[in-house]
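Tokens for IS110 family transposase. Go.
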Amino acid sequence: MSQVSTIGLDIAKNVFHAHGADERGVTVFSRKLTRGKLLDFFAGQPACVVALEACGGAHHWARQLQTMGHEVRLIPPAYVKPFVKRNKSDAIDAEAICEAAQRPGMRFVAVKSEQQQAAGLVFRTRDLVVRQRTQLINAIRGHLAEYGWVAPRGTAHMTMLADLLEDDEMASTLPEAARPMFKLMVDMLAELDRQISVLDREIARRAKEDEAARRLMTIPGIGPIAATAIIALAPPIETFRKGRDFAAWLGLAPRQHSTGGKQRLGSISKMGERTIRRLLIIGGSSMVRQACRFGAPAGSWLERMLARKPRMLVSVALANKMARMVWALLTKSEDYRAPAAVAA
């Protein structure tokens, strides 16, 4: 019997499927496994390459398999899809994962430690709470509109609105049954604001304690949230050969649809880590807004771009530029140095 060299593992909640192949790609076994028997099965296998899709729970199983001496490779699901021959089943998916892992040009995802995942959890939690706050604000504004009160948009007006709901003039126009519901939503909103403040302080504390995060905060447009998000959510910076590769991984590079020797570039690809991409675009937008209000430095790249391009396009282009700065600063372990002004 041939010696297995690569195992493709299709993971799920309770039922898994393993597809083993030798160094020539010939199938050695295809086996269904339950969750309780998975680790016992791999403990009896010789040290080999184990490939999984980079999905929920993949990093946990990767760490477990690495402790057994296996070389674990996580593959983005989009890169496995072309190797699925026809239809879909656990066995077919495991075979496709095994075949994709044997391709010499395949790209893999770095396995995260428990500490890295815990560091990223604070941003996931903050995003969740911010989305809940936005839903609650929209609900309050929408229900008030049913009674003829149109509230201004934005979180800054919610404190004023909460005070008005306590005022007799506004409360008298609302039905008796509606007032407790508005009071409940306002109290929930205040609690969400408190939780977001706690998370912001935690993120700021982590940014001050981390040397790399402090270095990233020297880049204009990058604050504590963006800096710590890059450190927590991005793979090791040495994974990327150049700054443009890092920007492309974030989805800030143009989408290509080129053929016949003609280059066609579209909008940004929006691939990769969307949390970091969103934070960089927000930082770029703040820089563009400040430049439009107070003026950009004379002769700067930003001044030339704003003179001939729309503001949103400049914001995304600036986010791409900031991503390449991030790569350069982390690679060289240096602080940001502002470019010298161009002589008139």
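The two ends are 76 Å apart (CA to CA).
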